[in-house]
């Protein structure tokens, strides 16, 4: 079973929402940081040099402010005033400081701030950029906290909200599993060991029965050790991605949460690259066969109908030769968008290569599948692709097979032969096997 983490990752990779407020006395440092954030992330940065000017920007931008990067001592405000102003308005705050010692660290982390960054660290700008990106991406994610302790459940939940997550909470394992079932968009579960009813270990095992490690991150937490061995090892062997011992520092929780969520994002990104045609955004040939074969077997075992269609853009070589490959790419993208918009959610569509596409239609007989193909053919014929000064008319030929064979390959072969006949008969038509 899959959750929507890959969809979340893709969405946040396309556009990071919000605006950053940077408060710093050093104009040079502010310029370096704001330029880095804007250039690398595409996020606008508003710069202030005092709490008064920051207040004006907060009034101007309001809920659009994603994060505040600020020193704790400003020309017109002390540390307490800075922290109170932003936390009172529920605006996440990251402390940027040039002075640091153990006492300062303890004092900063005792307050409701996300993190602290040392100015004199050579990698501080890179870390700030990463931090802004991380908090921004967290806003698309949902986490679940399962803990019977009101204190720890509330603490972890409040910290996750501070980090940008939407948060769900459960006081026992069964309630947590029900929330997981009802919320497939979950990206992260933080689960205590000692729970009423089933233990945290049992919860993790049941989670892993449906969700793989690379689909849903699970962090086990506990304040105790077991006579059967370290609880951390039990959690990891049962399927948890990580473990955190109570009591913990908020700083450590943030690092572990960020690390585990980023692992999921990296895997989702690699999976997307491996299964998606980079030009059109449709599935690629390999992904189509992996998924279509499972669909073929499942539909067959339930005696349900299906049809497959092979499609080819007519005279595509003339487009490339006459207008260039960039124009050809524009035609491919335009046709792909029409395909994606015209087909049902359950239909499986892919770019097979070049100007060829393939569609699997579940639960359709020949007449219904042909009707969809004719509608699609008409839609493409009625569309022109504009590229520069050129207006390109586009048509498509389609071969359709609804006669179930012993294999998916057999049906695709029949559809391909029907496509060949459609081309030979004059193109811009649908032929059935």
Automatic annotation (TrEMBL):
| Protein's GO biological process | cell adhesion involved in single-species biofilm formation; negative regulation of bacterial-type flagellum-dependent cell motility; phosphorelay signal transduction system
| Coiled coil feature spans | none
Keywords of this protein's UniProt record, alphabetized?
Phosphoprotein
Key word Methyltransferase present: no
- CDD domains assigned to the protein according to its UniProt record, in alphabetical order: GGDEF (cd01949)
- Occurrences of domain Response regulatory (ranges): 19-134, 142-261
For this UniProt entry, the molecular function terms from Gene Ontology, in alphabetical order, are: diguanylate cyclase activity
| The reaction(s) this protein catalyses | 2 GTP = 3',3'-c-di-GMP + 2 diphosphate
Q: State the EC number(s).
A: 2.7.7.65
Q: Which residues carry this modification: 4-aspartylphosphate?
A: 192
Question: What's any one GO cellular component for it?
Answer: plasma membrane
Domain GGDEF intervals: 304-433
Instruction: List, alphabetically, the Gene3D superfamilies matched.
Output: 3.30.70.270, 3.40.50.2300
Reply yes or no: does the keyword Cell membrane apply. no
The name this protein carries in UniProt is diguanylate cyclase
Question: What phylogenetic lineage does the species belong to?
Answer: Bacteria, Pseudomonadati, Pseudomonadota, Alphaproteobacteria, Rhodospirillales
């Amino acid at each position: 079973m899959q959750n929507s983490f890959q969809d979340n990752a893709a969405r946040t990779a396309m556009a990071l929402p919000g605006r950053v407020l940077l408060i710093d006395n050093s104009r040079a440092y502010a310029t370096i940081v704001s330029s880095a954030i804007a250039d690398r992330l595409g996020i606008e940065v508003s710069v202030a040099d005092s709490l008064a000017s920051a207040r004006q920007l907060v009034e101007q931008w309001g809920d659009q402010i994603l994060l505040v990067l600020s020193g704790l001592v400003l020309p017109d405000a002390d540390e307490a005033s800075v922290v109170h102003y932003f936390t009172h308005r529920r605006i996440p705050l990251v402390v940027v400081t040039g002075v640091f010692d153990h006492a300062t660290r303890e004092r900063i982390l005792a307050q409701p701030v996300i993190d602290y960054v040392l100015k004199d660290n050579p990698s501080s700008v890179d870390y700030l950029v990463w931090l802004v990106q991380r908090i921004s991406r967290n806003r698309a994610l949902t986490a679940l906290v399962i803990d019977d302790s009101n204190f720890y459940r509330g603490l972890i939940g409040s910290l996750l909200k501070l980090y940008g997550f939407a948060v769900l909470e459960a006081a026992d394992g069964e309630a947590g599993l029900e929330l997981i079932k009802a919320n497939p968009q979950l990206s992260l579960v933080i689960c205590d060991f000692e729970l009423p009813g089933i233990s945290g270990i049992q919860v993790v095992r049941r989670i892993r029965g449906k969700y793989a490690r690379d689909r849903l991150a699970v962090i086990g937490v506990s304040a105790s050790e077991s006579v059967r061995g370290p609880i951390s090892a039990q959690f990891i062997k049962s399927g948890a991605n990580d473990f955190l011992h109570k009591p913990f520092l908020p700083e450590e929780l943030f690092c572990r949460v960020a690390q585990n969520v980023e692992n999921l994002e990296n895997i989702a990104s690699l999976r997307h690259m491996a299964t998606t045609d980079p030009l059109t955004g449709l599935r690629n040939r390999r992904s189509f066969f992996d998924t279509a074969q499972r669909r073929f077997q499942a539909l067959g075992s339930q005696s349900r109908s299906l049809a497959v269609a092979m499609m080819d853009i007519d005279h595509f070589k003339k487009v490339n030769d006459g207008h260039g490959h960039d124009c050809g790419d524009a035609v491919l993208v335009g046709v792909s968008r029409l395909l994606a918009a015209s087909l049902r959610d359950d239909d499986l569509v892919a770019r097979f290569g070049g100007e060829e596409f393939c569609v699997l239609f579940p639960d359709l007989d020949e007449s219904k599948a042909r009707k969809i193909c004719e509608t699609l053919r008409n839609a493409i014929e009625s569309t022109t692709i504009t590229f520069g000064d050129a207006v390109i008319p586009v048509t498509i030929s389609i071969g359709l097979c609804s006669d179930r064979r012993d294999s998916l390959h057999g049906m695709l072969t029949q559809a391909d032969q029907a496509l060949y006949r459609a081309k030979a008969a004059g193109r811009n038509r649908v032929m059935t096997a």
